[in-house]
Amino acid sequence: MTKTFLQAAVEIAKGAGAILREELEYAPEIAYKGDFDLVTQADRRSEAWIVGRLQEFFPEHAIAAEEGTAKDKESEYRWHVDPLDGTTNFAHGYPCFCVSMALARKNELVLGVIYNPVYEELFTAQRGEGAYFNGKRIHCSRIETLKNSLLCTGFPNHKRHAHPNIYYYWDFTLRSHGVRRDGSAALDLAYVAAGRFDGFWEFGLKPWDTAAGVLLVEEAGGTISDLEGQPYTLGGKTILASNGLIHTEMKQLAVEIANRPMPPL
């Protein structure tokens, strides 16, 4: 039987999740892609599984994956794959990590799947068909003001001493119920879609970090832009995601912070 894109993506993500659960039982084999950017055997095994299965199901599709297993070819379809989003968490045994897969057709996102294998949380979305959590329709929150919102963000693994997000973190924390930093951008976006968080922002994320989550938020009724309120493009310098109701407030605060002189850290 020919599988639909969604059926295939869910099957593949769950298979990759099983690999991550298996690897979690052992001491991780850690390597570094820089001073702080980790990669583990689990990343590589998960990516090999995903890419292999995608090639089996859809040999004509292009694939862009975090650990470099690119299958770049002329195709109207391209998969964006993060085999283990939250590698640092994984390496420390902190159960906040996931498999993230998205499919774009002619550069438009049409499908997204995010799977947390520890808690068996499956988030799915298809363009025009809504967002779902373990098969149940989900929507962004209805919080209307920044002061009543719970937000999330992330910090880069490289050049952390020179990164401006600490100033954004400070201001957003003071003007909301709080800001969480869980270490998985894909899950952060999925949680915005599910109404667990009301807003999210971050700097310097790659397409595979955000592709699935962006579609989830949009299909759950939320809003996506960059920190200046301009349309977000995969791999853009900044991303701002929200339930839509607090988006203008978040954007205005972000612009205000960006226009201040920032003292050295």
Word description of this protein:
With 265 residues, the chain is α+β, with helices and mostly antiparallel strands. The chain has 2 domains: 5-138, 2-Layer Sandwich (Fructose-1,6-Bisphosphatase, Chain A, domain 1), CATH 3.30.540; 146-258, D-Maltodextrin-Binding Protein, domain 2, CATH 3.40.190. Helices cover 32% and strands 26% of the residues. It is built from 7 helices and 14 strands. It has a 7-stranded mixed beta sheet, sandwiched between helices. Strand 6 and strand 7 (121-126) form a beta hairpin. Helix 1 (5-24) packs antiparallel against helix 2 (41-57) and helix 5 packs parallel to helix 6 (207-219). The protein starts with a helix and ends in a 7-residue tail after the last helix.
- Give the class-level CATH name of the largest domain: Alpha Beta
Shape descriptor reads: globular
Give the helix tally.
Answer: 7
CA-CA gap between termini: 58 Å
Unreliable stretches (pLDDT < 50, length at least 5) are 34-38
DSSP E strands, number:
14
Radius of gyration: 18 Å
Strand content: 25-35%
CATH topology of the largest domain: Fructose-1,6-Bisphosphatase, Chain A, domain 1
Say which CATH homologous superfamily of the largest domain is assigned: Fructose-1,6-Bisphosphatase, subunit A, domain 1
Label the CATH architecture of the largest domain: 2-Layer Sandwich
Give the overall pLDDT as a whole number.
91
Placed side by side, the strands forming the largest sheet appear as: 3-4-5-6-7-8-9
